[in-house]
Model the fold of this input.
Amino acid sequence: MDAFDTLGRIITLTLFAATLRMATPVLFATLGGIFSAHSGVFNVGLEGLLDLGAFFAVVGSVALGSPWAGLALAVVSCLIASLMFAVIHLELKAHEIIVGLALNLFAYGLTNYLLVAILKATGFYKSPLIIGFQPVNIPLIERIPIVRELLSGHSPLVYLGFLGVALAYVGLFKTPWGFHLRAVGENVEAAEAVGINTRLMKYVGMLLSGALCGFGGAFLSLAYLNMFSENMTAGRGWLALAAVNFGEGRPLKSLVACLIFGFADALAIRLQQFGLPSQLVLMLPYVATLVVLILSAIQRSRKAEKVLESPPPATKLVEV
Amino acid sequence: MSSKVHLKGLLIGVVMQAANYALILIMALVVGAAVILVSGKNPVDAYIALFRGALGSPIKIADTLDRSSVLILTGLAAAVAFRTSVWNLGLEGQLYAGAFASAWVGFSIHGLPSPIHITLCLLAGTLVGGLWGLPAILLKLRWDVNEVVSTLMLNYIAILFTAYLVAFPFRSPTAFMPGTETLDATARLPRLMIPGSVLNIGFLIALALAFLIFWFLYRTKLGYELRMVGFNPQFAGYAGMPVRRSSFLAMIFSGALAGLGGAVVITGFFGRFISSFSVGYGWDGMVISLLAQNHPLGVIPAAIFYAALANGALAMQSATGVPQALVVTVKGTIMFFVTVQFFIAFLNRRLRQWMPSTP
Done:
């Protein structure tokens, strides 16, 4: 019973609450990736956008004394960066993967440079001047014992993230706008032929991608930790890319992948407290991503084989 | 007559390329200057300090060349993969895996003659680097797993796993930071005869490989297949070329070159494996390859340019107080502009207007 005892001490309600928290930044970036994937752009720049968001959220919060101002500045800076991405990719016809990588590099360089130049700090910036988001207690749920510990007392951005999944679902699959956006990603020529402004749709997809990464970045630096540090995104933009891939463009399915990463992240932190080498447990989210990626690919290739056997159904796969 | 036209065309090509790179450089320096101005420093002073730090004396030039060795190798690694349209973004991980393997051979085997010991170290790095690319390409070929994400995940896994290895099982009690034992003297790459500089034969190895890869890609059937597959996989498939084999080889060669890069920097420069020793050598390799338009010989000047930026950045920071992170911003800007074939198209139109006789 020793093993169960240990398991019981590791897997607690706090762990699941932490899972929701750790899933949030990936979730925002994933939603962003979903929008750009539907408009037909493989957004490799999510990681850099998160980084920019996290940095400018801190700058906004310090300068204006409010986490919401920080969030606003994060969103604006990510919008500018993704507009840059969009112009270079759509107008100057540069390859999307390369522009995305350039954006990551640019964001990493710029944030580290400004960290020294504006905030006068090297490596990380931590200060009481950073006003972070306060946890929100939800009135009704607060009174229910177990659910309370799981769902209440998170940062408002956590709730916004989960609300975002619902909004993305409705927007993409229940509105004419979403139909148009998806049409662009599926077949540009056909969409063009029926009179959809495909270029505008691509811009919208990429800008939404940027804005959502602004939320994700702000969560990292103003809610999860009240600080900014180099590499604080720790590959979450890449995890998001895997989640987009897993969900095949469906927000709810991608949410499952995000929760898996969130759990792996939360578990890694928990296991560290039990004295396991941090380097090994920190590998967990990346290994989990690989597993998720492989599972989704196997599932997709099965589906493709079925399609070959039977007449083509009307379902579609998002090319990611 | 026809050779004259041909010559003119060639001349236009060279002028265009030169102008293209000059424009990219100027744009990047302008963006950099704007960023320096924001922080209230003088961009001209900063750039002078950067230049002096990179190329200001024979020793500085030699040190810049030394730094370029690993960058040439990771640049070649990227070029082989990108030429074949295999998006190997796992160079950093392959570099770490190769570096650790070569360090292990370097400190755990004793009493070998130096040339043999060095060869074994470099081979170990090459082999393990290639192996680290294996899972990603097998997954791609079997289940069509996107290699962009899988190679990236393998980066994190390699960096964290080697960090674990040097923090626990292989930690040297004498090391100041988590790292392995120092390599035996027989495993260290011999220095080239430049007093005061760390330049070693690693640079010559990198140069030789650039020519070897050039020969492979442009003068052999296998290399031709790789390039055709990269150019247009469908067409290459219809023409009966082994598309899957080419992708497989490109990934393995790419990983092997990155692993060799790790081996060269460990045996030539550090002399032991230190956790997080790489300051983005693998990432730089990708940008270098793109800057060189994925051409193996173009990788050489591009890598030296990048090495100069990196070495100059340190000098700039200590002389003028402009943070060296500026250089990363400049690098990102360069990458943005390199990808834009805008300049080439623009210059092309202009030059054709000036020289109407060329077709």
Q: What stands out?
A: Confidence is low (pLDDT under 50) at residues 312-320 of chain A. Chain A touches chain B through 48 residues (CB under 8 Å). The beta strands of chain A are 124-125, 228-229.
